[in-house]
Amino acid sequence: MKDLYKSLVSAAMRKYGVPEWLSPYIYKYAKKSNIGTIKQAIGFINVRRKKGQLTKSHVILPNGIKFDIKAVLHILNQFYYGVSETGKIAEEWARDPSINNTVDISNHFREIAEARAKHARAVRNMIEGLGGAIGEPAADIRKIFTDVRRIDDPVERLLATDIIIRDAYSRPFGFIFYKVFYPVSPEFMRSLGKLFVSENSTAAFSEGLIAEKLKKGEIDSGKIMDTSRGLLWLIYKSIEAELPLAKKVGIEPEAMLLRDISIAYPLHTLQSIGIDIDIDKEMKRIAKFEKENK
User: Fold this and answer.
1) Which of 94, 123, 247, 275 has the highest count of CB atoms within 10 angstroms of its CB?
2) Angle value at C-alpha 82, between 91 and 287, nearest 5 degrees
3) DSSP secondary structure of 216-278
4) Mean per-residue pLDDT for 209-220?
C-alpha cells in the first residue's frame, strides 16, 4: 500500500514538474487519503484529451470533479486582490523618496507595479468571463497586505513581495490551480500563465540582492526571519480561514496540502539564498502560533 501511494504521488509530481523537496508534504497528504482519493487527485493531472466543462453554475474538471462556480469566483477574488494590491504597493514604493538613491530597487518596484497591473486585468477578465464580479477580499487577506504596506526597509520590501508573497500564493496557485483549470478554460488561463512566468523572472533580482547582502553581512538574517515569520503566520491564518469553504466543496485535504506548501515554499527559498533554517521546526512554530492565537 505504501509503495502504491509513493508510485502514484511520484507520477503526479513528474507530471506537474513539482520540486522534489515537496514530496514529504505530498506523501503526508497521501497517507491521509484513500486510494480512490489519490486516483482522483492524479486525475487532476492525467487529463489526456479531456477538456472539462464550464457552465453558469459549475466548473467540471476533466476528472469529473464538480466545483460550485461561486467557490471558484471566491478564490479568484482573493487572488485578484493580492495581485492588484501588490501592484499598488510596489507603485508607492517606487515613488518613495527614501530609495531614490537606490535606482535598481526603485526601478524594480516600478517593473513590479506595471506587471501586476497587467496581471490584475487578466484575473479580472477571468472573473467577469465566468459571470462574476470583483468583490471585497476576506479580512485575513486584507490584513496581510496592510502589514506589507507598512514595511519601510527596502530589502525587507523585496523580501515581502518577491519571496514571501510570491512563494506562498503565486507558486502554489500556479502549479496547481493553473494546471488543473487550464483544460476547462484555456482562453482565460493562458493570460494567467504569463503571470507565473513573470513572477519568477522578476523575483530573481530580489533573491540575488538579498543573498549578496547576507553573504557580505550587510543585512541581519535574524531580522529577515522575523519579518518572514510575521507574514507567514498571517498567510497561514488566511488559508486556515478558507478551510470551511474547502470542506464544503469537498477539497479540505487538498486545501490543507496547499496551506503547508504555501508556508514551506518561501522557507525553502530563504534557505537557498543563505539563511540557516530548520524548515520543519519553522513550520511547526507557525502552525502552533496560529492555534494559540485563535
Assistant:
1) 123
2) 125
3) HT-S-HHHHHHHHHHHHHHHHHHHHTTHHHHHHTT-HHHHHHHHHHHHHHHHHHHHHTT----
4) 93
Rounded Cα–Cα distance for residues 235 and 202 (Å):
22
| Cell numbers that stand for 166 in this block | 510570491
* Residues 62, 209: Cα–Cα separation, whole Å: 42
Strand segments, DSSP code E, in the chain are 53-54, 58-60, 66-68
Please state, in angstroms and as integers, the Cα–Cα distance from residue 2 to each residue in 33, 74, 89, 293, following that order: 12, 36, 47, 36
Residue 57 cell numbers, joined: 453554475
What is the Cα–Cα distance from 127 to 196, expressed in whole angstroms?
A: 18
82 vs 25, 31, 133, CA distance in Å? 25, 32, 16
Which cell numbers hold the place of 232? Answer: 507567514
Task: Provide the edge-to-edge strand list for the sheet that holds 53-54.
Answer: 53-54, 58-60, 66-68
Of 161 and 29, more confident: 161
Contacts of 222 (CB under 8 A, 6+ apart): none
Tell me the average pLDDT of the chain: 81
Q: Which three cell numbers stand for residue 129?
A: 468571463
SS3 185: coil
- Strand partners of residue 67: 59
Mean pLDDT of 133-155: 95
Q: For residues 124 and 122, what is the distance between their CA atoms, to the nearest angstrom?
A: 5
> Do 167 and 264 meet the contact criterion of CB atoms below 8 Å apart?
no
